[in-house]
């Protein structure tokens, strides 16, 4: 009996998918079948299976994994502590506000901060250590990426922790469960949906990161996103760029299948 | 629920107020379609006072839009949708835009000030007889370095980059043409080479440079060099001028084996709806006074001889920015490689990038 | 409520310091009389003065905010409805397909989204400018809203709705009084992250804008070649402080107001 309202709720969303998702996919697939002279070919797909692109795919996945892992590692406790603060909604907003300042400007700031003569090295030198090369390393790359993604991970986790019934935790503790067991058996399973959603909104875009691969990693990290950017804007080989994009979309679908909800049917009828 | 509705109303009210404010602020310009001139240029690449002066002199309202790469700009012009009247592409992009039939020939009778341009910079291979374009700024590709950090290297030769004392001290600019071109030049080949063997040899030579390379970066090379993050950088003379302005220790050299000579040029794209205004604007920018003011503001080298007479003597005689004709003869302008070889250059550049780990 | 331990407070403080460090760095240099974000020379307010003299930049700033607010609002509405629709789909395969389609725009690099939207808009004949930018921002913000609302819907207790139905609630009642209030935190999260997407976007906006309409991001990125002027730092600093001020002010006004109403009840 609920189906009618739900279907009409879905309408604008399906319209959005049709216009802004299906159309671009069709375009991307079409371009991926064209060579530099506009002839139909499968060469781009062949080219993807050369060592250069496979290496790039691996490194994209590796960095996306590292970024997601550290983002989760930092965000979960942050979200957990935030739910226990007095003005938690306000603090949560204050986590998001920095992400509203232009990313290029913040990246330039990071270049200054991490620089050989920047504040961090100045601090290190106070303790008598030599200045460290921090820019153009994996460390600075992952650090800045995590910085970018933190709000995207904290929000869904915060939301799922926030409604967690505290009595559940008291009950578990009363029954003699240790803090760790309580967390593992009670808190974590109940916040799993939030964590999953956080992982999705970090891992998937992290696969196609660009810009900071150049600004912070000095092209020492090359991802599929960088390659697409180059193919579109420098080589103007839209065919190859689109082919890489097709593979990115495929990878994303696979990730969705792995992390997808396995239970049957929605709980909201 | 009440909160959701309140928030929605608040957003709508704030947006409406802001729209009102924006309208009130831009109302001064008057949006009468005919007397508007839309300029498409790099950000911070013109003295804004000149735009105001032009508006005052001609009564034309100027809309100024910006882009961050030649290729992105071309895509926009190709697709249309906006009536760009003036664009400022680099020389290799002009060849491409000509091929794609995106440019309108200039009416020279409406641009008498073209006489101010150094004849050396007119009638170049990318645009015979300046049928479509007039040079705006020009420059070279060379090496910025901090003499106190590189011993007695003076970079009169590209070979100096391979010096073993420069381990992880070199920045390269993130451009396939620039880097592969440097490899080709260092071997005495043309930077427009279409010879596969030469390209292979250049790439192999570049790969031996990998241990010296600290990073391959884009425009952020300017703040990094100013902060002495690296001792040496391969970059364009215009950016080098910016760096040297902020960090007086730095110096700039164009190696003797030869290098690239580049131009940014004013053109009228086929999207133009105000050709009269566009010609007037080009002529205005070629006027000695405005060109001098603009060169002072932007800091790049001007091709305008009449303007050079009005500028600071020290600047226009500095051979790092204004190389002598003899030096200029070693320089080559990029030719359009065609899609196949452009792809090849980028492939080789990617191979080089992947060797840096 | 358990109190936060000192170590938890230290941890949170560290997170906040890192999050705000680059912004404070930017703001610091907005007072630099030198021309760039290196070598602090001496204190000056000239860049702030420049902001208020540059009416073009101010209009661009206002446009940026309008697009961000409206696109976030519209995409939140579409995305929330979409999420509600998705959970009602019984077929697991169908649901996964919808979710995969949902995420296509998240995984696609901006140039691809930008270029394909540009082709789409010029084909349909939408005039490039405010409308096309707004549409594009709505389009790429919808998926993030769906992903924020979805977990709240999934954890919602079915018995809640059954109970409401038993009590004779209509479908509209259930939507308004049960579902929406429950998923409200997810909706707000989606809205705020949509704001982030919109404010940060450069590539898509660049491709679909035109006719004199521009946003702050487009301006800043295109300045990179010739050097980003400190006026941009100043304007960002101003926006930042105004935002923080408004957020804190709004929070305390509403929380006091809601306390008062609670007290009356």
From TrEMBL, chain C:
Top-level taxon of origin: Bacteria
Topology in the lipid bilayer: Multi-pass membrane protein
Keyword Ligase: no
Subcellular location(s) per record: Cell membrane
InterPro entries, A to Z: Bact_Polyamine_Transport, MetI-like, MetI-like_sf
Membrane-spanning residues: 12-31, 57-89, 101-124, 130-150, 179-199, 230-253
Cross-referenced CDD domains: TM_PBP2 (cd06261)
Keywords: Cell membrane, Membrane, Transmembrane, Transmembrane helix, Transport
Residue intervals of the ABC transmembrane type-1 domain: 61-251
Family the UniProt entry places it in: Belongs to the binding-protein-dependent transport system permease family. CysTW subfamily.
Record-given protein name: Spermidine/putrescine transport system permease protein
Organism: Lysinibacillus parviboronicapiens
